[in-house]
Amino acid sequence: MTARSAGSSVSVRAPAKINLHLGVGPVRPDGYHPLATAYQAISLFSTVTATEADGWSLTCSGRDGVVVDDVPLDDTNLAMRAARLLAGHAGRDRPGDPGVALHLDKGIPVAGGLAGGSADAAAALLACDALWGLGTPLSELLALAGRLGSDVPFGLLGGSAAGHGRGELVTALADAGRYDWVVLTRDAGMSTPAVYAEYDALHAGSVVPDPEIPAALVDALAAGSVRDLAAAVGNDLQPASLRLRPELGAPLEAGLAASALAALVSGSGPTCLFLCEDGPHAEQVAAALAPYGRTVLAHGPVPGAEVI
Ligand SMILES: C[C@@](CO)(OP(=O)(O)O)[C@H](O)COP(=O)(O)OP(=O)(O)OC[C@H]1O[C@@H](n2ccc(N)nc2=O)[C@H](O)[C@@H]1O
Ligand SMILES: Nc1ncnc2c1ncn2[C@@H]1O[C@H](COP(=O)(O)OP(=O)(O)O)[C@@H](O)[C@H]1O
């Protein structure tokens, strides 16, 4: 592959993730928690455009009501970290080497438990790889992604997938279905480390077993059965998220009362997810949830990061 000409751009779209099941084990010596999770990519997207430039810069916009005030615009931004990591990996980080101009257009709520920053990082890796004509093998991109954050490799893979290690070791799961979700977002995000710390506090003094993905969930996906999936979803972080945000209890109950097949907190929260039979059913459930926040309809699984 050859690098694109000066001033040229590549845009990559990457999806939000949800955890159909999030099994959390006892905290490791490095501070991370071993996970056994089933990820699904859903149809909320972030688009990263990488443009040839002499220096390094980043801009950000939100769409579909997404507020981006809390997105850092400096070198701590995960997309910028991804671009610099790939540049170093490719030997493009010598004095005088060109940089890249990144623009993020975020349709994934920030700090919502939907891995929006991870989607940006996955998209930035792929966009820069294409812009610079590197042709980095997927296995290497996945390894770089894992260094950026536990959820980033899944942003590259998409679909439905098992996640192990601290979540960065991903393998595709067979999935024959289409699942319609109501995604209830909140204005104030939650800190992932704070939710894991609350999880530790809740389990202090007790033995936490090694987590597993339920076989029934894997079977439900393989069969494409929305009802069997509804019976198998779960989130070990949910009690910790609810301790920090007790007000999330009411919409979870309201969604079930409005006939959602399942209701759960997305990852560390505060986004709540409601599994529905199909699109029309999701519209009906969303109407009942309107008093509790902003609702968006999404479906999964969708592909991981891809050039558009
Ligand atoms: C909870 C989950 C579930 O998918 O997602 P979100 O709800 O944040 O989207 C993930 O585990 C979040 O992954 P990610 O947001 O990439 O986390 P990282 O940047 O790797 O780590 C941020 C911090 O979260 C905690 N952390 C993360 C992953 C893990 N397996 N154990 C942890 O304890 C650690 O405190 C770590 O310092
Ligand atoms: N590109 C990015 N987009 C959003 N947040 C980012 C980004 N880079 C770094 N961050 C930081 O990561 C935090 C978590 O954001 P996000 O990935 O959207 O949520 P979550 O970890 O809940 O899935 C934000 O509060 C922000 O400080």
Structural descriptors:
alpha+beta, Ribosomal Protein S5, domain 2, Alpha-Beta Plaits, eight-stranded mixed beta sheet, four-stranded antiparallel beta sheet, 12 strands, about 30% helix, about 30% strand, binds 4-diphosphocytidyl-2-C-methyl-D-erythritol 2-phosphate, EC 2.7.1.148, ATP binding
Task: Describe the fold and architecture.
The protein has helices spanning 78-89, 116-131, 138-148, 152-157, 192-202, 215-223, 226-232, 238-244, 249-257, 279-289; strands spanning 9-24, 35-53, 56-62, 99-106, 160-164, 169-172, 179-185, 234-235, 262-265, 272-276, 294-300, 306-307. The protein is an alpha+beta fold. The chain has 2 domains: 9-174, Ribosomal Protein S5, domain 2, CATH 3.30.230.10; 179-300, Alpha-Beta Plaits (2-Layer Sandwich), CATH 3.30.70.890. It starts with 8 loop residues before the first strand and ends with a strand. The model has no long low-confidence stretch (mean pLDDT 96). The strands form 2 sheets. Strands 1, 2, 3, 4, 5, 6, 8 and 12 form an 8-stranded mixed sheet that branches. Helices cover 32% and strands 28% of the residues. Bound molecules: 4-diphosphocytidyl-2-C-methyl-D-erythritol 2-phosphate and adenosine-5'-diphosphate. 4-diphosphocytidyl-2-C-methyl-D-erythritol 2-phosphate (SUD) binds next to strand 1 and helix 5.
Produce the secondary structure layout.
Blueprint: E1 9-24, E2 35-53, E3 56-62, H1 78-89, E4 99-106, H2 116-131, H3 138-148, H4 152-157, E5 160-164, E6 169-172, E7 179-185, H5 192-202, H6 215-223, H7 226-232, E8 234-235, H8 238-244, H9 249-257, E9 262-265, E10 272-276, H10 279-289, E11 294-300, E12 306-307
Parallel strand pairs: 1-8, 3-4
Antiparallel strand pairs: 1-2, 1-12, 2-4, 2-5, 5-6, 7-10, 7-11, 9-10
Helix pairs in contact: 1-2, 1-3, 5-8, 6-7
The chain binds 4-diphosphocytidyl-2-C-methyl-D-erythritol 2-phosphate and adenosine-5'-diphosphate (ADP).
